[in-house]
Amino acid sequence: MKPASFDYARCDSADEALALLKEHGDEARIMAGGQSLMPMLNMRLVRPAIVVDISAIAALSYCRVEGAAVEIGATFTQGALEAWPEVGRRLPLLAAALPEIGHFQTRNRGTVCGSLCHADPSSELPLCLATLGGEVVLRSARRRRTLKAADFQLGLLTTAREPDEMVMAVRYPLARAGFGYAFREIARRHGDFAIVALAAICNGATVRLGVGGVADRPVVREWANLDAGGLADALNEFAWGLDGSDDIHATARYRREMVRRLGKKVIEEARRCAS
Q1: Under a CB-based contact definition with an 8 Å cutoff, are residues 241 and 255 in contact?
Q2: What is the CATH number of domain 7-53?
Q3: CA contacts within 13 A on the Cβ side of 246
Q4: Between vectors from CA 212 to CA 208 and to CA 217, what angle results, nearest 5°?
Q5: What is 180-274's CATH number?
Q6: Helix or strand or coil: residue 210?
Q7: Contact at 8 Å (CB) between 37 and 52?
Q8: pLDDT in tens, 122-174
Q9: 94 in helix, strand or coil?
């Protein structure tokens, strides 16, 4: 299938893109890497009046340490982040998750911020952002604001971005001494969207676990001083609380079991890394 007709604007600056968003509002769609937008256009799930292409804005293609976080610009690709020499030391959770995202070719085009804007509940990067407690930086012609991950992704393919806003950057908190990080997912094939994905952060006292692919957005829980018995009970309660449903990929019962089993494994892995 081919997309419905639309106008196309290739922007050279963020200000140019924001002016187009101010003019067109809901009728505009931003394209950075196009790995999510192009299939939706082809299947006519979205029919914008104009596609605003920001992929050529070099000023937004960056990855740098800013205070206690790594800030990643709107056109920086997943492949570039995977190849960043500091990713394993600065962002070990993302270093573990990035190879699970799509395939080498799609990571070379897909952007980090684009995945967050698409807000698929099975996607790895929104899950990592929620688990780490990161931030999203938005800008419009009117204002600039920063939202916590939990306030940005509102549901299935739904974010708090307003029609005239653009995500300028995302901030993933830096790895902290004494903490261990681990990521696991299960999919039908490598590169497919996860049936269940789990991200864990542990230190000597606390366990923080994020789950994607079950609810309509990533869900995060934190527990303190869990022994082996307490962990099993906590994971079981968490699995039931996600209110998973059956679909063509898996049953809710299967997803609950994966939260219990993979959850235990990913937490044990994070604990080993912390020690």
Answers
A1: no
A2: 3.30.43.10
A3: 2
A4: 105
A5: 3.30.390.50
A6: strand
A7: no
A8: 999 999 999 999 999 999 999 999 999 999 999 999 999 999 999 999 999 99
A9: helix
